[in-house]
Amino acid sequence: MPKVKTNKTAAKRFKVSGTGKLLFEHARLNHLKLKKHGGGRLRRMKIEGEVKQPGERQRIRRMLPNSL
């Protein structure tokens, strides 16, 4: 029986919280920040997002077998 391997690209993009939620960082955070600062947009982008769709969660969890 071969070893179960982690998908390294998924491991770099997602992390599993202590309660089992899948978290990710928002894109477009490091380029052209000046026009993103108004209205709290930059602050909202810094907060980690959660993967909500059940199908997406299941697919990502299969890619991260050792982080559950």
Please outline what is shown here:
The protein has 68 residues and is α+β, with helices and mostly antiparallel strands.
Explain this structure to me?
This protein has helices spanning 8-13, 41-46, 54-63; strands at 14-16, 22-24, 49-50. The protein is 32% helix and 12% strand. The chain has one domain (8-67): Factor Xa Inhibitor (Irregular), CATH 4.10.410. The two termini are 21 Å apart.
Report low-confidence residues grouped into runs of 5 or more: none
DSSP summary, beta strand count: 3
Mean pLDDT: 90
Helix content: 25-40%
Largest sheet: 3 strands, antiparallel
SSE topology string: HEEHEH
| Rg of Cα set | 15 Å
Keywords:
68 residues, alpha+beta, Factor Xa Inhibitor, three-stranded antiparallel sheet, 3 helices, 3 strands, 32% helix
Annotate the secondary structure layout.
Blueprint: H1 8-13, E1 14-16, E2 22-24, H2 41-46, E3 49-50, H3 54-63
Antiparallel strand pairs: 1-2, 2-3
